[in-house]
Amino acid sequence: MFSEAQLYSPVTRTGEGDVKVHLSDEHPGVHDSDYQARRNAIAALALNYTPGSPLPHITYTDEEQQVWRIVSAELARKHRTYASAEVLAAAEALALPNDHIPQLDEVSAALAPLSGFRYVPAAGLVPLREFFGSFADRIFHSTQYIRHHSAPLYTPEPDAIHEIIGHANQIASPRFAAVYAEVGAAVGRLSSESALKFLANVFWFSMEFGVVREGDEIRCYGAGLLSSYGEIEEFRHAELRPLDVAEMGSAVYDITHYQPTLYCAESIAEIEDVIGGFFATVTDETPERLRHASTAEAQ
C-alpha cells in the first residue's frame, strides 16, 4: 500500500469475528479504553455493511457531538478567510449541520442533487484501487468515527470531520465532482501499480492539498487543507509552484507534516483543464511519457 496508508489505524478481525482498530502509540486515544472500544464498534458496523443495505447509523455520544460542534465552528470561520469561492459556494449549497454529526445517508441526501455523489461506510483504509475506482459511480467511502475528545482540533488520521467537512464540501461542487469521476474512470484503465501511485500523487497535490489563485490571494480547495485547523492557516507560507502533472506525480512528500510545497492553479478552469485533463486521459504509459518529456524540456 502507498504511503498515505500510514494515516490510518489498521483494522483487523479475529477468527471469532471481533474487530480491532490498532491505534498508534502516539494516538491521543491510545490509552483510553472507552475510546478504543468505541472505535472497534464503529469499525465493525462498517465491515458488516453490504452494498444496497441501509447505511449504518451511529448513535454519537455527547462528547463526539461536542467535538463536531467545536471543529465545525472553527473551520467554518477559517473557510471564510482561506477557502476558494468554488468551495464556499458548494458548502453553502450543501449546508452541512454544525450542531450535530450528520449520518452518512444525511450527507448523501444533501450531495446527490448537487453532484450525484453518495457516501458509503469505511472501517478505515480502503485500498486505493477500490477507493478511487468507486468515484466512477460517484461513491465516496467515508469513515464514521470522530477524533479523540482530548484534542478536537487535531487528528493523526482521517476521521468523519475530514471525510465530510473536507471532501463533501468539495464534491458538492459539480465541477470538482466531475474531476473525481474522471479519477474513477482512470482507475478502470490502469493495470500498473506504478501508474496508480502516480495518479494518487497527483490527486494528493490537487484534490487533497490543492490551492488556487483568486485575485491577489491564494485560496485552498483541497480537502486535506479544508479539514485541517492548523494547516489551513499555514499553506500560504508553502513554496507555491505552478501546476505540473509530471512533477506532482513524481514528488516525494511526508504525509505527517505540513506540506512545504504546494501546486497553485491560476483558476478553477485550469484545475479542470490540467488536472481533470490528466485524469481523463491517463494510461499506464502516461507517467513515463510525462517524466521523459519533462526531463527533455529541462535539458
- The tally of helices reads 13
Q: Count the beta strands.
A: 8
Approximately what portion of the residues adopt beta-strand conformation? 5-15%
Helix content: 40-55%
Mean pLDDT: 93
Which structural class best describes the helix and strand composition? alpha/beta
Helix/strand order, N-terminal first = EEHHHHEHEHHHEEHHEHEHH
Largest sheet: 4 strands, mixed
Estimated radius of gyration = 19 Å
Give the terminus-to-terminus CA distance. Answer: 34 Å
Tertiary shape = globular
Residue stretches low in confidence (pLDDT < 50, at least 5 long) are: none
* Cross-sheet strand order for the largest sheet: 6-5-8-7
Quick overview of this protein structure:
The protein has 299 residues and is α/β, with parallel strands linked by helices. The protein is built from 13 helices and eight strands.
Molecular structure report:
This protein is an alpha/beta fold and 299 residues long. 50% of the residues lie in helices and 10% in strands. It has 13 helices and eight strands. It is globular. The model has no long low-confidence stretch (mean pLDDT 93).
Structural key phrases:
299 residues; alpha/beta; four-stranded mixed β-sheet; two-stranded antiparallel ribbon
Please specify the SSE layout and strand pairing.
Elements: E1 11-13, E2 19-21, H1 33-47, H2 62-82, H3 85-94, H4 104-115, E3 118-121, H5 128-133, E4 139-142, H6 160-171, H7 174-189, H8 193-208, E5 211-214, E6 217-220, H9 223-226, H10 231-234, E7 239-242, H11 245-250, E8 261-265, H12 268-281, H13 286-298
Parallel strand pairs: 3-4, 5-8, 7-8
Antiparallel strand pairs: 1-2, 5-6
Helix pairs in contact: 3-6, 7-8, 7-12
